[in-house]
Amino acid sequence: VDRRQRQMCIRDRGEDIYVEMGGGRTIAVEWTTMQSMEEVEDGRVEVIGPDVTDIAPGTRLHFAMLAEVAGRNFQEDFEPILERQNHHLINQAQGVMHIGQRDIAWIRISKQAVEKGFKLEHIGKIIHAKYHQDFGAIFDKVQIKIYTDEEKVKEILDMARASYSHRDARIEGMTDETTDTFYSCILCQSFAPDHVCVISPERTGLCGAYNWLDCRAAYEINPAGPNQPIKKGECLDERLGQFKGCNEYVRICLLYTSDAADDLLGVDLGGRRIIKKKNNKSIQILKKVQANQT
User: Fold this and answer.
1) In the beta sheet, which residues pair with residue 107?
2) In terms of DSSP bridges, do strands 17-22 and 242-243 run parallel, antiparallel, or are they unpaired?
3) Which DSSP symbol is given to 18?
4) For residues 48 and 158, what is the distance between their CA atoms, to the nearest angstrom?
5) Cα separation of 144 and 47, whole Å?
6) CB 31 within 8 A of CB 67
7) How far is CA 175 from CA 31, 170, 179, 181, 199, in A?
8) Residue 164 burial by CB count (10 A; 0-12/13-18/19+): exposed, middle or buried?
9) Helix axes 244-253, 282-293, angle to 10 degrees
10) In whole angstroms, what separates CA 60 from the centre of its chain?
11) Which of 123, 89, 93, 85 is nearest to 209 (CA)?
12) What whole-number distance in Å separates Cα of residue 137 and Cα of residue 225?
């Protein structure tokens, strides 16, 4: 099938669906984890359980995708950053819909995609190719295992949830007072161009996908990416959680184009203010704001 940038709100529906995985109807879990160099064979993609060629149209399958990454420059903190790119990467396959992350993923593959020869192994090949293309500087090898056998999917689900809990526990002791730097997040602007989030140790973005540690790691991987550091500055309102640096940052990067910026209400933490954006030069503007802050 063709690969292209795809609006994430487009869904394959009803009679067009060949196979559906997750979405609350079956288990669907995605887990990216670090392994040693000896344990990973780069480019290896395995499907354990029924593939689309083994099922009838309209079938629902359980699904687990395990991406094992190895590299001299790879860190444990980078695992969730790559893992949450799966959403964007899989959606680039025409005829494939992907929504969600972690253990709340939802995947639909259309009949048209299957007619063109699309199989589950191609999801793994997309992840392998795009991980290397977008993040090749931080790892050396990646192999993908896709499970549709229910018992194996449940095994992976238990291991993935233990990993998720470990990641989440690392930030539980942090508070907004323990750091002078928050992070922006504009990941969702590919499908919600009016959104910007300010992420602190105590507040994730509205989607819940990235916490403060994830944003810090994402910035280390890609300093020009969607997660930029913000010096929070003076506290303007302790009750509402408003900080001068956050307000200034969002105001300038979005060029005063929203009523929220004009009415002096400020920007809440955790992405609770929705801002309108009228141009696509956010990153350059963010850099100017950072320069002003320093």
Assistant:
1) 21, 98
2) unpaired
3) E
4) 17
5) 9
6) yes
7) 27, 12, 8, 12, 12
8) middle
9) 150
10) 24
11) 85
12) 15
Cα gap 171→184, rounded to integer Å: 17
Q: Give me the amino acid identity at 124.
A: G
How far apart CA 144 and CA 142 sit, in angstroms, is: 7
- Rounded to whole angstroms, how far apart are CA atoms 30 and 264? 41
CA-closest candidate to residue 80, choices 47, 103, 99, 64: 103
pTM of structure: 0.71
C-alpha to C-alpha distance for 287 and 294, rounded to whole angstroms: 11
Q: Which residue is it, tokens 């192999």?
A: 143
Query: What single-letter amino acid sits at 186?
Result: I
Encoded tokens for 183: 């992070």
Rounded Cα distance between 106 and 27, Å, is: 9
Distance between the two ends of the chain, CA-based, in angstroms? 47
Mean pLDDT by runs of 10 across the 294 residues of the chain is 49 79 96 96 97 95 98 89 90 91 94 95 96 90 97 97 89 85 83 80 82 88 88 88 87 55 41 38 55 60
Six-digit token string for 177:
């007072």
